Amino acid sequence: MSGCDKHSNHDHEHKAGCGHTAIKHADHVDYLHDGHLHHVHGDHVDEHVLSVSQANPDQCTPKHDCGAHAPEHKHGPGCGHEAVPHGDHVDYLVDGHLHHPHGDHCDDHGAVEVIK
């Protein structure tokens, strides 16, 4: 991770038990906060994005059926799943993996490690 993409005016202190979902990202922990992926970095908070990778691809998987929600469920703001910035788009965290709304289905964009 080179350089900082600072999140301005961020007063909340992210840490274990702060109320935000923590996920492992590369060699550190980030926090999901209102559709952003925040990384505590010294005296400020950086904006992070999960990279498209072999572990978290951005491919279409029309036959994906995780069983974690009804087939007619539509991911989007207010759907009950947390938004996760991934590559150039937004995915939704469902039972430890990323769902991406795509037409009449949701794609599986891989697992993420949720820190309990």
Explained architecture:
This protein is mostly beta strands. The chain is 0% helix and 41% strand. It contains no helices and nine strands. The chain has strands at 22-25, 28-33, 36-41, 44-48, 82-86, 89-94, 97-102, 105-111, 114-115. A five-stranded antiparallel sheet has the order 4-3-2-1-9, with no helix packed on it. Strand 2 and strand 3 form a beta hairpin.
Q: List the uncertain runs.
A: none
Order of helix and strand elements from N to C terminus: EEEEEEEEE
Structural class of the helices, strands and pairings?
A: mainly beta
State the strand order across the main sheet. 4-3-2-1-9
Helical proportion, percent range: under 10%
The biggest beta sheet is recorded as:
5 strands, antiparallel
Q: How many strands appear in the DSSP assignment?
A: 9
Question: Number of DSSP helices?
Answer: 0
User: Could you tell me the strand content as a percent range?
Assistant: 35-45%
Identify the quaternary structure here: single chain
* CA-based shape: globular
Mean pLDDT, all residues:
88
- The N- and C-terminal alpha carbons lie at a distance of 24 Å
User: Radius of gyration from the CA trace?
Assistant: 14 Å
